[in-house]
Amino acid sequence: MTSTNSFSDGSYMDMQAPVVPVNRSAVPPLLLQYWNTVLRWRWLMMGIVLGAIVIGAVITLFMSPQYSAEVQIQVERQQKQITKVEGIEAESSAPDLEFYATQYALLEARPIAERVATSLRLYDSVQFLEAHGVAPDTFDAMETGQARGKAADAKKAMVVGILLGHVEINPIRLSKLINIRYTSQNPELSSRIANEWAKAYIAESMERQYASTADARKFLERRLVILRDRLDESERVAVSYAARSGIVSFSDTKDADGRTVTNQTLASLRLEELAAELNKATAARITAESRKGSVGANVTESVTGGAIATLKAQRATVAADYARKTVQLDERNPQVQELREQLRSLDEAIAQESRRITLTRQTEYQEATNRERELRGELQQIKQEYEAERTANIQYAALLRDADTNRQIYDALLQRYKEIGVAGQVGVNNISVVQPAIVPNAPSSPKLLLNLLLALCVGLILAGLTAVALEQIDEGIDNPTDVETLLGLPLLGVTPMTADDILSNLKDVKSPIYDAYFTLMSNLSFSTNHGFPKSISVTSTRPNEGKSSSSVALATVLARTGKNVILVDGDVRKPSVNGLLDLKNDRGLTDFLSGNDDWRSLVQTGHAANISVISAGRTPPNAAELLTGSRLAELVQKLGEVYDHIVIDAPPVLGMADAPLIGRSVEAVVYVVESGGPPIRGVRNSTQRILSANAKIAGVILTKMSQRSMSYGYGYGYGYGYGYGDEKES
């Protein structure tokens, strides 16, 4: 809802006029704000820094000198490949970063410290205790106060803890080198412990490598015993089955997988032999059969190469002689007859030989037939035996495969066991000492300059944190530049802290108070397009921030310029204007708000020319209800017809609605903030309440500014009385 106020000049004021925009260019830089904080707390900060330096120097002077000895080792990423056993040597697939991070952790592990303590006999060394600032009788006290076993454990824990607390592992970037640094109060002891630490690390690495194969060897030993028994059992089963089944193998070979293959058995060999003999017998029978079927000329032709051929050759010769003789001689000639007798004898011999051959061939045929029949019968029997053997061979082959599988597993496991044993005993070392530690000649700490520098840094940090904390704890606005930054409202002016009465300061036009409020009046003249607002209310977050004094001062300065001003005390709950101006308060604003339309009877003469005053009047029981109505706006309108400017001293915002209600009835609100006073959060909430009531805040007055803060200026250059000093001196 928009409300307007009309004035005697006929102009109207829009109560929802926008707030004067914040000049962000006036906001000081962040570094300047920090610088102002440093200036504000400079003495405290200087004290903290000096205290830190003194403490650092004292601590340094009382510190015992420490000597550091350093040994340098080289750790290779991979070991030499001695065996072909996977998992024993280092794998190159693992990242180097992970490997070396593991080595750094191992170098600081408890087992290394225990090995060093045992090797150097530090568990009972008084020199070791003295070198680390421990009382020499500490071990005796442990043995006296505890049982033997617990005392030994306590000493061991203490010594190991001291060792781990004084060793440093410093890897050199982009290299395989690692520096092992040990620090104590004894230079020789530091050197011995550093060198022993490197030796212990190497020994621990070797033992860890050997131990990594110990479990594998034990496991393989147990598995080998089991596999050996399994192999023996499978071989016994195969041999026993072959004996029961009558399998006699003459030729066993290995296939591509190393398994036993039975190529020839007794039955298979016998079958092959009988088959070959049967083939021969069949061929012999066929030959005999063909020869048996040959007769006459066929027989003669078939035996021409034998006895018959000889006889026939003789007969041919005799026949030729006989033919020749018969031509020459008579058939009765003895020679012819003798030749005829020879021919007859030869023919009989040939016939007799032919009969003998025929009989022989028949006999041969019969024998060949019988032989073939016998072989066929025997072959059939062998075939049956062979088929039975083949059936048995299937199971026998399965048993052989089982035995071969067990043998292969056993051999592979045995080979791995041998290689692991070799790998564990070879002990390849990938760690070497590059540079042993020497006895240091000068202490490594404390370093006075370094400690003083650290103390200075710590002091500066503590001083800065303290200043920031104090700024946060204070929370009040005491820097004019913070007004626009923190509140988003323009700064109208700054008034200095003064112990004198406000009226006495205002009487002197050369006083800083007068100059401050004159500047405030000038700045307010720029808050509207028609100059100084016709009506204003002055409020604050809480009481005693200077709002009533500011109201009186503004009214006084305006009156000095010839303006007709009326000052209204709007703080009906706790009025203060009448006290400042020494006026009566028996009647006033509450009377008009309660229904008294004769406002002129409420006006009192002010403390200076051109100033009239309406006091608050008697305190009503329902102040908020009186202000909620339209009576206040009506009064402002009537006063505007008579006076040039209306200044209302409104109550503090606090948790009440009085100030916002008054603010929406005037043209502008001037908000008073005490320097270093209310928390910023409270000021923000209060200004937001006023803005939420459709009131316009013209700006902020920062009151009660200390002379120290004003002397720094904060970029504003508040040096009140400029020019008057010269006049006084002259």
Question: How do the strands and helices of this protein lay out in sequence?
Answer:
Blueprint: E1 4-6, E2 12-14, H1 30-40, H2 42-62, E3 67-75, H3 96-107, H4 110-119, H5 126-131, H6 138-145, H7 148-166, E4 167-171, E5 177-184, H8 187-245, E6 249-254, E7 260-265, H9 266-292, H10 297-302, H11 307-328, H12 334-426, E8 431-435, H13 448-474, H14 481-487, E9 491-496, H15 502-507, H16 512-524, E10 535-540, H17 547-560, E11 565-569, H18 577-581, H19 589-593, E12 604-605, E13 611-614, H20 623-628, H21 631-642, E14 645-649, H22 658-663, E15 668-674, H23 680-692, E16 697-705, H24 707-712, H25 724-729
Parallel strand pairs: 9-16, 10-14, 10-15, 11-13, 11-14, 15-16
Antiparallel strand pairs: 1-2, 3-5, 3-8, 4-5, 6-7, 12-13
